[in-house]
Design goal:
By secondary structure, this protein is mainly β. The protein has helices spanning 5-11, 96-100, 102-109, 228-231; strands at residues 15-17, 26-28, 48-63, 71-81, 149-155, 161-165, 170-180, 198-203, 214-222, 234-248. The chain is globular. The chain starts with a helix and ends with a strand.
């Protein structure tokens, strides 16, 4: 995996977005966040940033034995559109501190926005047959403005990570193309298990992506598994939040 800040700096791309009130379209350059150490390979110079979303959901794992290592089995999350509040992008933009605090605040302020199974003993599991509730914007989060519903993240029947941004007609079917550890000071989450890795996700080549073929998971909070010796055998679900950056190359 190529991991260098220089590639990121060379690959920052421009997105044009109209101000929500009045005035000309503003052409700015949102930049992927940095871990402060090793970073993911950046998008190519021709890549177009299509969307920035805030995701809230669960990472799923299974333990085959009490002395085993937890095995990742997928994820479920609801996505909210935060593109226009990226610092400096529009008149609705947040300050850098306010924007960067969103994953932490959402993780601790709201329950996981998924349907619970009726017979579950887990605090965070989701109904496997119908995990997602009716589409709903994210409202009333501290003093932040409402954030529009953007879509869902899930793994399809073949285990392929999928992002269905149905609010805008975008879709990404992806595979892992790179990963780096979250910063050491990242939010460890409600179970104090640590923040999941940052990911670079590339097109799966299954012909299912629409308008998006490169995704980054960054600024993660929570999501790492509990140890099998602590949780025991079977399935576990761990709450997490993250920013997802969607590109078309």
């Amino acid at each position: 995996m190529v991991s260098t800040k220089n590639l990121l700096l060379a690959a920052f791309t421009t997105i044009a977005y109209a101000a929500p009130t009045r005035g000309p379209c503003k052409s700015l350059t949102p930049t992927l966040p940095s871990t402060g150490g090793d970073d993911l390979q950046g998008p190519s110079p021709v890549a177009r940033l299509k969307k920035i979303a805030l995701g809230h959901g669960i990472q799923n794992y299974t333990c085959s034995a009490s002395d085993a290592t937890p095995s990742a089995t997928g994820a479920l999350a609801v996505l909210y559109d935060v593109t226009t509040v990226y610092p400096g992008l529009s008149r609705a933009a947040l300050s850098p501190n306010s924007f960067n605090s969103l994953p932490h605040l959402l993780l601790w302020d709201r329950p996981v926005p998924l349907n619970r199974p009726s017979n579950s003993t887990s605090s965070y599991s989701a109904d496997t047959s119908a995990p997602f509730p009716a589409h709903e914007d994210l409202k009333g989060l501290a003093d932040y403005p409402p954030f529009k519903y953007a879509g869902h993240h899930f793994f399809d029947s073949t285990g392929t990570p999928t992002f269905d941004l149905d609010a805008s007609g975008l879709k990404a079917s992806v595979v892992k193309g790179g990963n780096v550890d979250a910063p050491k000071d990242a939010d460890k989450g409600v179970l104090d298990t640590g923040a999941v890795a940052w990911l670079r996700l590339t097109d799966s080549k299954k012909g299912e992506s629409k308008g998006v073929n490169l995704v980054y998971r960054v600024s993660t909070a929570g999501g790492n598994a509990e140890g099998c010796g602590v949780k025991g055998t079977g399935v576990q679900s761990v709450p997490y939040t993250a920013f997802y950056w969607f590109y078309e190359e």
